[in-house]
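Loading example: each entry is read as four labelled lines plus one structure line.
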Amino acid sequence: MTIGQRPRWRYIYDDLRTAIERDELPPGSRVPAEMSLAEQYGYARNTVRTALNALQADGLITAGAGSLGRTVRRRYQIFFDAADFERGVYHDNPARAQDQWKADVERQGWTPRQIIRVDWLPAPRDVAEWLDVPPGELLARRRRVRLVSRPPSDPEMPLMLADTWTPEDIARRVLTDDQGQEYCPLLEERDVVVRGGIIRAIGINQVEFEDMIVPRMPSPDEVELLDLQPGSPVGQHARIGIDDTGRRVRALVSTWAGDRQVLRYRLPVPSPEE
Amino acid sequence: MTIGQRPRWRYIYDDLRTAIERDELPPGSRVPAEMSLAEQYGYARNTVRTALNALQADGLITAGAGSLGRTVRRRYQIFFDAADFERGVYHDNPARAQDQWKADVERQGWTPRQIIRVDWLPAPRDVAEWLDVPPGELLARRRRVRLVSRPPSDPEMPLMLADTWTPEDIARRVLTDDQGQEYCPLLEERDVVVRGGIIRAIGINQVEFEDMIVPRMPSPDEVELLDLQPGSPVGQHARIGIDDTGRRVRALVSTWAGDRQVLRYRLPVPSPEE
DNA sequence: ACGGATTTGTGCGTATGTATA
DNA sequence: CTATACATACGCACAAATCCG
């Protein structure tokens, strides 16, 4: 059935792809309906669907039944800084009492919100390796689902999952609040803002971060939580905190939607060693 | 036709997905053939294909006609360091005359190779923005396709594309080699190794890097060059070099295959500002 | 609140092409 | 060369979501 070199669906795929890249189909615009493409090219609807599914898997178009139809995917460029030596900013900058991520996002004109939940879970393979504990050991996972909206009460858009994994002895460390009440900041299901950051406040002296970054496709859970379209890859940023004894004390695993957020590092260039 | 909540194909998808996650179907193992799954579940072959295509789009399985069949995707964890303050290592560390990436990869037991090609191209929108030049301005792009193999002459596996984009005045700067010959290192289609790095050698004093990292799906070109399976997202790491006058002198855009390589930063934790 | 129009989603059957061991 | 298994392609029917009168 295939006549030329390329399969039929590939013609539609290529045509639409170049139209999108040339901005003839700008972000947000409607993609022609399946039946209309089928008539236009003289192909069956299923053939058209193969092409559109490929574009969807490439993250270029969205899909939805009914009058939603298919549209060219929009992209956002919200930055989040993992290191900013210029401004002296770190996620865990000891000099700031404010949540670093919230401050960053607000500066860019978005209204942030976090939903926090703590669970005790057996260590997944990768986390166990990062923290140098046996796989399956029970760890505390403090998950923050981070959402933003534009001021005028638009619907919220989920941006990232930020999971802090800690071994039990660290998770159970306590602080004392204004009323003299003791609490475990790493087990609190609410925003905890401590001057210098939680880790430092509970008496841990981190001296090094090891950050590992990898793109991957999301799990069904993440698709749900981040409201992802099929074909949206996520970035996974794992920050391992190492204390002054060399112990790997915690892993902060952030998973962000690639079409919404950009991870940024600002680094000084080392001067030449003479 | 849909009986329960979930569509039929979703049962197959979920079953296979959990089998893979539980390592009952380990990486490299064969996925049952479409017809065998169709009989097992009592569904049509097309329905089975919907499930398998979704797993493919999620990057979990590969596909290939004939006796290749479908297999569970293998993953590699080759590190490449964007910053390593502990070891004093940078991509452009002025103290080292060796190619940083090659050294890193060799230390991990792989044999590296680069294919280098230089083209003059109009600046794509994002590169233009990073370098603060008008979009469409002609820039030099020095592309390095980076491949590795395991020692015993296995087939090579492409790992990443590393594109250096520079404005013309910088690209045309010259160095003098041992024989007294002048050449433009940023336009050479061969490995150029200079003590201190090319940028420094041609008289540019970079004082800051701005790194931006985003996951995305690859373009058809990248699929070709990196030999990517459908459903493999890539990471894009753009490093903008800023010199002591504040000028954005070059962009190093690295695109890496997510199932093969991990980007790593090792950073010192800043001490508290008292 | 309801119904119709539109558009995508699910699912089946069938046939033939193509790549690989 | 042949068997296997995926790839392409068609046609058809009905379900489900959404928007608009």
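Chain A touches chain B through 53 residues (CB under 8 Å).
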